[in-house]
From TrEMBL:
The keyword Hydrolase applies. Residues 9-72 form the ABC transporter domain. It comes from the Bacteria. Its EC number is 3.6.3.33. Keywords: Hydrolase, Transport. Pfam families: ABC_tran (PF00005). It is an enzyme of class 3 (hydrolase). This is Vitamin B12 ABC transporter, ATPase component BtuD. GO terms for molecular function: ATP binding; ATP hydrolysis activity. It comes from Klebsiella pneumoniae.
């Protein structure tokens, strides 16, 4: 817990630290040495630290959260927990900007997207419009299909 406490804007807000840690499934891991954490556990510790720095309940000045591939090393349940936290932060007025290679996750959760190809933006705007077959084929040089599965649109690379 000491490592995460360093990232709190207001020292002594241990209740918020405990809440975020519990929501990311870290509550029983906070006493472990860093070298005894798995890749996913360490990823969640780093995410908790960043969230604590901009959390509107502890830092009214927090406005922007930048995340680079935050879902890496997380299982599906951990991804869902992080998605809930990010949604709450966004609803509280925090701008969440993240990179991802998971097109279907992006399609489900992002309001706006930029599609990059070799460092250049080839499309930007509403995610459903950006992640279309034509743009994805141009970006990845393989054909894509949009299919509906159980009421959800999925993107599938078709080789």
């Amino acid at each position: 817990m000491a490592l995460l406490a360093l990232h709190m804007q207001q020292q002594g807000d241990s209740a918020r630290l405990s809440d975020i840690a519990a929501r990311l499934g870290l509550d029983n891991k906070l006493g472990r040495p860093v070298n005894q954490l798995s890749g996913g556990e360490w990823q969640r510790v780093r995410l908790a630290a960043v969230i604590l720095q901009i959390d509107p309940l502890s830092n009214s000045a927090g406005q922007l959260l930048l995340l680079d591939e935050p879902m890496n090393s997380l299982d599906v349940a951990q991804q869902a927990a992080l998605d809930r936290l990010l949604h709450e932060l966004s609803a509280a007025g925090i701008a969440v900007v993240m990179s991802s290679h998971d097109l279907n996750h992006t399609l489900r959760h992002a309001g706006q997207s930029w599609l990059l190809c070799q460092g250049e933006a080839i499309a930007c705007g509403e995610t459903a419009e950006v992640l279309n077959e034509e743009n994805l084929t141009a970006a990845y040089a393989i054909p894509f299909q949009r299919v509906e599965v159980a009421g959800h649109i999925m993107l599938i690379a078709s080789q």
